[in-house]
Write a structure and sequence with these properties.
By secondary structure, this protein is α/β, with parallel strands linked by helices. Among the domains are: 291 residues, Catalase core domain (Catalase HpII,  Chain A, domain 1); 149 residues, Rossmann fold (3-Layer(aba) Sandwich), CATH 3.40.50.880. Helices cover 27% and strands 14% of the residues. Strands 1, 2, 3, 4, 5, 6, 7, 8, 9 and 10 form a ten-stranded antiparallel sheet that branches. Helix 3 packs antiparallel against helix 4, helix 4 packs across helix 12 and helix 11 crosses helix 13. It binds CIS-heme D hydroxychlorin gamma-spirolactone. CIS-heme D hydroxychlorin gamma-spirolactone (HDD) binds next to strand 2, strand 3, strand 4 and helix 9.
Amino acid sequence: MAMEKQPPEGGVARTPSQSNTNKKVESLETFRSDATNQALTTNQGVKIADNQNTLRAGERGPSLLEDFIMREKITHFDHERIPERIVHARGSAAHGVFKVYESQAELTKAAFLQDPSKETPVYVRFSTVQGSRGSADTVRDVRGFAVKFYTEEGNFDLVGNNMPVFFIQDAIKFPDFVHAVKPEPHNEMPQGASAHDTFWDFVSLVPESAHMVLWTMSDRAIPRSLRTMEGFGIHTFRFINAQGKGRFVKFHWRPTIGSASLLWDEAQKLAGKDSDFHRRDLWEAIDNGDYPEWELGVQIVEEEDEHKFDFDLLDPTKIIPEELVPLKMIGKLTLNRNPDNFFAETEQVAFCPGHIVPGIDFTNDPLLQGRLFSYTDTQISRLGGPNFHEIPINRPLAPLANGQRDAMHRQTIDKGQASYEPNSIDGGWPKETPPAASGGGFESYTERVEGSKIRVRSPSFKDHYSQATLFWNSMTDPEKDHIVGAYSFELSKVERKHIRERQLGILANIDETLAARVAENLGLPAPKKNADADELGKSSVTESPALSIVAKTKPSIKTRKVAILAAPGADAASIKAVQDALKAEGAHAKVISPTLGSPAQGIEADATILGMPSIMFDGVIVAGGKDSAKTLSESGDARHFVLEAFKHLKAIGAIGDGEDLLAAAHLPGGEEGVAVGSDANAVLKSFIEAMSKHRVWSRAQKAESVPA
Ligand code: HDD
């Protein structure tokens, strides 16, 4: 066993100015165990001679209770699982670094936002919300986007989602919402999906959910990759600078490769054909050196402007449209290292919105306030007690010392006699650090609060529809079609008609056309907007292009995946030309063949047509070569491959005889996003151009009639 001793921790007083940058990796390394060249032992360090047989009385006799080696092994195994997270159980994570572009001293005194030469280690966990730990990655759901910054002043957790708003306004409703969205309690169905009665019952009775439900029915809920998701802190937080000046701040993460989503048909098929689709994509990207990156953007609101908006900054069901407050990009997050051990790192990482550092503070958002309690509480049952901060992945990089002692699984061996403060026995240590412009102790922002002790929702939280309407109006046509499709799909799965009707009423308050289109698919009459819906509020911004993914597509094929379809007899030169051209653009090509083996001289198939179907790729190119084209044209699976790529609006290319496959699948050349010809370079040029738009949206209507 290579278990190393813990570094000393308790009772060590260090000055706040002591820099600890770059120590995270070191401090995590202390806990990593590498069994290379190590003897197999028990947990007590006793070397094991036989790990194959239980101790028994005679060759064919009963096993003996005294076999401490077998009992220790089985006992440990019996307790390997810990409770999964009540929400966000399914997740994947990676290590990385954050760097600020330039000092943000004017806005905040947070140390990790001061020096552009400094790298702050981070651990980032992405998740779905509804499903259990083993559920599929590509379900329609919100994605968690939780970032732990190991700053030199302590850990800062930005525990956000890939959507900028939330379903409810007050934390007291969270258990109700989660009980409604989770699989139904009597039969535990459906897994990883919100298309069931209890979810729609709840949200149709709680109109404050209207805006967020619309986001979850949009393409945002089926991201192409975790790497193409935006992230949001959601709540309004505060920045405080060294002079003590406070400002409101909203946090945004923007992927540098741009945003992209799956189509619903792809997402559903992927859930069966590769339920680890997102996890695998993230892992492979980091392994390939395609390090995922996000820029951190902030929207800043001066305190005196708090009430100048037509919504309340404290209401987590609202965005601040970028037309009102632009985004300022202040730094970059790069994920550059896969974890070594899923359980130790990803399963045990414990985020909490209450983990903040000097220079950042909360607001009175009632959802945020409740979260500040919930996360620590949940870790106590999930991770077995209040010492979860000692688990390596959760340990701060900053030194820690206090009078907290004992409890389940305590690992620190605290020296000294005084576990209280003040004390005169251990020299008074550890001592408080007064607040200071930099490096001081944490001081809560001074905010004047007065009011009666009441359970009420502020009237400024009443407008549930106008920002949902803004979102709908900001969508491109294909995105609107997808939203209509998503509501229609989900509500068609709802067994109770009155719930479907009630939800249509909510949709009418957002937009009557949206409601009418969904109503038609459900065979129900189209409802009219409630007479008083407009009274609740109006958005001063009526359209915001930043809300659309399609409108913001970044024209690039970097890190995208292309299938080269080839069967024996394929033309090696055209395959090599495709591979080289795609590599030069930063994309990844895989040779896909009916069987494994070598379809062309010097070319090995990476996977089979059935093993890696078209839904796993962003585009497909059929290689040249007469025999190859003949085999592929006669294969139903190969025809299905290109038909499905066509249906999913992907770029398609065919070189030379490869065109025969398109003809056999009834996909003639000349279609937009379908490039054919004998000149491989010309085909590649049009193919790359089509794929850089991510999808060929103009083909959408035609694709609907494709049966694949
Ligand atoms: Fe939460 C986990 C995000 C509201 C209670 N939440 C959790 C995770 C994310 C979020 C990303 C997974 C963290 C990880 O990867 O381990 N939650 C949000 C966002 C919210 C939100 C963006 C609203 C803006 N959450 C929310 C409320 C409550 C909780 C209102 C309770 C009152 N959330 C929890 C929790 C979880 C959690 C039960 C489950 C596992 C965990 O905390 O560690 O405490």
